[in-house]
Design a protein that fits this description.
With 92 residues, the protein is mainly α. The chain has one domain. It is 34% helix and 0% strand. This is RNA-directed DNA polymerase from mobile element jockey.
């Protein structure tokens, strides 16, 4: 779906290469990779030329208010709490 361009989405100006690098560096390395299987450890090894392309891609997506379907996918795994009965109706 397209974003309503009259709504403020919290982004002032273009995303910079430094912004992208900060997000990569502060991402939790113990998190599992997403559906693309790209880990944060791999992203940290990207050369500056790849970071430039990634930054351009992000900015184009924001400008066009279009986010590719793969960017919207996630794999969610529920982990039950230990020693908590699984049959209770409050467990989701």
């Amino acid at each position: 779906p397209r974003i309503n361009t009259t709504e403020h989405i919290g982004i002032e100006g273009d995303v910079t290469i430094n912004d992208v690098w900060k997000v990569i560096r502060t991402a939790l390395t113990r998190k599992a990779p997403g559906p693309d299987n790209i880990s944060t450890q791999v992203l940290e090894l990207l050369p500056i030329s790849a970071l430039k392309i990634l930054t351009e891609l992000i900015n184009s997506s924001i400008r066009l208010t279009h986010f590719p379907a793969p960017w919207k996918r996630a794999t969610i795994v529920t982990i039950p709490e230990p020693r908590k009965p699984q049959h209770l109706p409050g467990n989701r």
